[in-house]
């Protein structure tokens, strides 16, 4: 497994490459709903039910996990996923850092991103 953190710029580069990582939006439900936006191709997953949905993830696909600011919610989720054998990393600065970098966001339900 690689580093625990990934910058928005690193993620943007990876998304333009061959096999992109899977992006997991683990913002708390209220923050997700309030924003109404998400990273392109991300899927929202309730951070409080990780044990229920992590079995549906592909073990060999790198995962990038983000919450609002990249602090405890996404770090806890990535740690849990790593302990289960996944290559999971945290988006440094979370959703807000991605937006501040000027990268694209899409309406939340355009991705059919509720899980």
Element layout with pairings:
Layout: E1 5-6, H1 8-15, E2 22-25, H2 29-35, E3 37-38, E4 43-44, H3 50-53, E5 63-66, H4 72-83, E6 88-91, H5 94-100, E7 106-107
Parallel strand pairs: 1-6, 2-4, 2-5, 5-6
Antiparallel strand pairs: 3-7
Summarize, please.
This protein has 115 residues and is an alpha/beta fold. The chain has one domain (5-111): Oxidized Rhodanese, domain 1 (3-Layer(aba) Sandwich), CATH 3.40.250.10.
Describe, in plain words, how this protein is organized in 3D.
- The protein is of the alpha/beta class.
- It has a single domain (5-111), classed as Oxidized Rhodanese, domain 1, CATH 3.40.250.10.
- Helix content is 33%, strand content 17%.
- The chain has helices spanning 8-15, 29-35, 50-53, 72-83, 94-100, and strands at residues 5-6, 22-25, 37-38, 43-44, 63-66, 88-91, 106-107.
- A 5-stranded parallel β-sheet has the order 1-6-5-2-4. Strands 3-7 form a two-stranded antiparallel sheet.
- The termini are far apart.
Supply the CATH architecture: 3-Layer(aba) Sandwich
Largest sheet: 5 strands, parallel
Question: What is the CATH fold-level name?
Answer: Oxidized Rhodanese, domain 1
What count of structural domains? 1
The residue ranges in which pLDDT falls below 50 over 5 or more consecutive positions are: none
Spatial order of the strands forming the largest sheet: 1-6-5-2-4
